[in-house]
Every structure is written in structure tokens, then in C-alpha cells.
Amino acid sequence: SIVENAIDGIFQSTPEGRYLSVNPALARIYGYASPEELMLAMKNISEQLYVDPKRRNEFIAAIEVDGAVSGFESLIYRKDKTQIWISENARAVRDSTGRLLYYEGTVSDITERKLAQQALELQKVQTERLLLNILPQSIATRLKAGETPIADQFEQVSVLFADLVGFTNFSAQQTPAELVEILNAIFSEFDRLAEKHRLEKIKTIGDAYMVVGGLPVPRLDYDEAIAQMALDMLASIDRLNVKTNQVFQVRIGINIGTVIAGVIGKSKFIYDLWGDTVNVASRMESSGMPGKIQVSATTYECLKDRFAFEERGIIEVKGKGEMLTYWLKGRR
To answer: Per-residue pLDDT for 1 more than 70?
Structure first.
């Protein structure tokens, strides 16, 4: 018969949760040798079949609303207690007075489809996580929406560059694995500090590190956060030296001002910054001294009431001429 030879499972069950009839396909889906074995073993569908015991009541409630269910998906136990996904299409059968007699319907094994969906969802989550490791969340959202290129102007941004002094000579004495291990330790600590101070890491270039405050979401304490990050970076290098018996030093430069930030190009996206503010911050680092934090006069004016500074004086800055700079010493 059609019922006996059907690929999908076919059933009739009582409102109380026992099977009145099942076909061979349903027995096979549930892991039983025959319909008779299934009906004999399954005395309470709610407790024995569904992984979630409340699922049977949800099945009944859905039928009560519309008289039927379509594509009702559930995780169930097979005879050997392994779990599979099924999809049920069912309806309520009533007598002429409207009294419920039984439920009847079909069952499909959708485990492969559900596993494929779960794998796709996991891949989506992993891709999203990877994207957020590369781009700020708000920028990633705009890119996914198709916006390109992305370019925004920010009026109040703090920019920090840091460089490991003498690391080129140090690297010549290390194996590649040792070099990567120590760089990873240093930059991972810097990453932790950036997250702690809610700053945006922009990039690393060799042994240089760039981080900014005040974008992509503007904030009032953008200047204070970057200054504290710089001080914490020096402290973290000191701790690392004690731990590794090394003499690493970091040179840090900070500037504050207006920048353009965004994403350009069509491949290997990176969120980057442009403008004179960025160039000056880079020069503050490159013209600085090991173990010190050099800042521009603009930065000094923003922070002088909250942090202690020492005037360095007028220095010659490549591409900028003479500039008055300061050393950031600590909090007041």
C-alpha cells in the first residue's frame, strides 16, 4: 500500500500520547525494527520521544490554534538514544460533534539539513568574529550593508604610535619562532590595554603599534584614555623585562586633532586613518626617546590639567619644521 511503502513516516496518535498506527518508514526513522516494536515500546510520546518533554504540548497547542501544523521541527530520541531532527506535518481528526479523536500526520528526518544549517551558522559566527577582529563593529556593519568606500571625518581624535626600540637588532639574534613569540606577547598585552581603555587598535607594522581614541564612536575622554594607555604601555614593558630578563624599550608619540578614517579598496580591507594629525603623531614617536612618551603642544594643552608633563622644548620635526613638544610623565 501507499502507507506501507511511503518514504516518510506516517502515524496516528491519541491525545494522551500513544500511537494508534505507524508505518514501516516511521519505525525505521526512529530506529525500530518494525511498526509493532515501535508501538509496543512507545507508551508516552511526550516523555519518550521528544528531547524536550514540553515539545509534545507545544505540538498540541499549535494544532489547537490552526487545526494543523506544518514543518513542526523537533529534536527527538531514536531507540538507541541517539538524537535526530524531525519535521512533522499533522492535523487533528474529530468526529461529527467536534470531539478530538486522534492526530495523524507525516514525519521526515531532517537531520542532515539541520546539521548543514548549524554548520553554516557556525561558519557565519566565525566569519563575523574574524571580521570584527579586523574592523570596528560599526564599520563592519556598514560594509556588509554594501557601503563603499567608507570615509568619515572626526574632529577630536587622539592618535598614538609606539615602536619597540632596538628590536631590529634583537630580531637578528632570534629564531623566527622566538621572534614571533615575543612580539605576540608584547602586542597581546597592548591589545588588552586597548580593550581596557576602550580604544581602537588600528594596526601593527613590524614592531610598531598604532591605536586611537575617539572613533569610530566619539567619546569625551578620548584624550585621557590614550594618555593612560601610553603610561600603561611603559609599565607593561617594564613588567615584561623583569619576566623575560630582557631590556626592551618602547618609544611612544601622541597627537590630538582631526582625522579622516575609513575603509578603501576592494580586498584585504583595513580600517585606517589619514591626515596631518596622524603624521604628527608618527613624528612624535620617531623623534622621541626610548622609554618616554612625547606629545605635541596640542596634546599638552588638552591634558595639562590632569597629567604631569615636562617641556622638552623646540625640536626639528621631519616634514613639519620646528615644534614645541612635551614629555608625558604621569597623572597629577
So the answer is: no
